## 1
Amino acid sequence: MSGDAVSSAARSLLDRAARLYAHDPAVSAQVADCIRRLDQPLRIAVAGAIKAGKSTLLNSLVGQAVAPTDATECTRVVTWYRHGQHPTVTARMADGSAANVRVVRVESGLSFDVSDLDSDRIEHIDVEWPAPALAATTIVDTPGTSSLSHDVSARTLAMFAPVEGTSNADAVVYLLRSLSEGDVSFLKQIAAHIASDAGPLGVIGVVSRADEVGAGRIDSMNSAHEMAARFAGELERNGLCQAVVPVAGLLAFAAKTLREAEFSAFLALAAVPVDDLTLALLSADRFGRPDMPLPVDPGLRAELVRRFGLFGIRLAVTMIRLGVRDSTALAAELLQRSGIEELRTLIDIQFGQRAEQLKSHSVLTGLARVLQAHPVGDSGRLLVDVQRTLADVHGFAELRLLGRLRTTKSPLPEADQAELVRLIGGLGVHPVRRLGLLEQADRGTIHAAAVAAVHKWRQRAKHPLLDRGTAKACEVAARSAEGIVKQLAQV
Ligand SMILES: Nc1nc2c(ncn2[C@@H]2O[C@H](COP(=O)(O)OP(=O)(O)OP(=O)(O)O)[C@@H](O)[C@H]2O)c(=O)[nH]1
Ligand SMILES: [Mg+2]
């Protein structure tokens, strides 16, 4: 079933539920919530330890400084960023009331003034902003998972793993600066909720503030790539993340909003003798000192450090020395090297291409819970139909299996396990991704590989020594390969 067919099946089940509970305002409201969620953009949460660079990364994904950032603990309340015609910020209080929040402009962008509200009573903050990037995806900023205050990090966990109902997020981007025990334990808690059908269905890891990994040296991003590969090895093997990439969020944001005055400053710096500039860039303090003989005034130098970091400045100057001649080209080079484009592609492959299925799965599991909690007249029959849809849609079976593979150890050899994850769409749903072929593979090659995969996984599924769960997993993989064969026959 295609994504569209799945959401229309979900919609008709929800309509039946709406009719069934028309007499009960409280349950009707829950059903209406599910229906709305189907029409809303996919929800992606940004999570990680405090000061991992979450809000900065969110801003670079949105392309505007909407989320407040700071060098001290900053995000203390879960904050939703949705698309809206006019900027509005609302605090949703624990008692169900709402209050308008004043937006104030600060040096680093925006800040929300909640000083006249009791911040402990704020359940979450809703930001509506006219940013095009938010039209397809709602992004949720969360307090650090190892916040200095236990209550604050508990808010993040409650958001992913509510005591009742389904997770508020469909997918997670998890930021790591090192692979700490705290990170692993938080990722395990998310995985446990995925396995019980109540958690977000996808997790991408990001080695954040990647420019700092190699102490801001020009090869920092290479070091960050190596680090990401090491983390990926551990986290993907344990199934805790689907992929791990390095991103320098600060640089990505500055590149996206590069100003002409900054470009001129980089041009001027590129004309300074290499050794002199290298010395001046030894530290941020040194670079900003008024007595440094540099052709850029100290105020602008300090601004360059704040927006680009030392690594960003070194990189920009190097690119100009290598021949980049205008600000548009420089912005593109910096963006590409920041890693943000790679993350964006990954988000699209992992989450965007499955958005309808991810959302339908979230709302149908939610609806099943409502029906179980409130039995009336025909609700038993509807529950059977909801459960049948959840069981029959192959895309759901794939998603559940991906979740399960993240938490249980499989008896399959490692190479087979990796192939299975790929085949069921763990690295993207396009046939070439599923079959591990080159992007430009022709139809014949795809067909032959898909047919071979059907045979291989059917055989595996029949192996007499396999436990039931693994045999089922092999069958799901065979059906995924069959799906590709069918898809090829249709076009
Ligand atoms: N060099 C560098 N600094 C960064 C990067 N991302 C964020 N920072 C800096 O790190 C500090 C924290 O950034 P935030 O985006 O507020 O981090 P956060 O994870 O949202 O922090 P909390 O909400 O307080 O947990 C700020 O001073 C940022 O300027 C990056 O990619 N590179
Ligand atoms: Mg933050």
Note: The chain has a mean pLDDT of 84.
## 2
Amino acid sequence: MAQLFFRYGAMNSGKSIEILKVAHNYEEQNKRVILMTSALDDRAGVGMIASRIGFERTAIPVKHETDLFETIRETDPHAACVLIDEAQFLQKHHIFEAARVVDELHIPVMAFGLKNDFRNELFEGSKYLLLYADKIEEMKTICWFCAKKAIMNLRIHDGKPVYEGEQVLIGGNESYYPVCRHHYFHPPLDKIEHQD
Ligand SMILES: [Zn+2]
């Protein structure tokens, strides 16, 4: 039975490398996969899934107006699996379309992304994945500052933590850190490198 999966984790929890690994496992068995990623994240180029350890693949960029269901049906209605990176940036309609891919095309969809934004609110894509996914799984990573599990994402701008502002700001003078709850509110700023 095809299912809609949501695998979430804080920054640097290895989501992109996991996607590339899953894709590789399918393809090794001569099964076709469809790779997709939000067009909003252009750090590695639009339509690229890049892992921090250096592997990268091209992917179908998902824009605001993209209809996931139609795109997948036109691309490969018999694909073995759809893998979506940066799913936090998807919109409500994308999640509904992904659910239709599972229920009507019977293709499993695995969406990977952040759950909490830097203000510690849910991203839209993550909210609807949490509500509509058949299976939800946490990808664990540890706090940047201690050995606890990181459950939040800290935004640092000019060496200072930021808790308000636009939810999505890519390519600015910002850096993000996976953190535990305590260090989200009390980051040891002397351990953060100035990146400008
Ligand atoms: Zn910590």
Note: The longest strand covers residues 4-9.
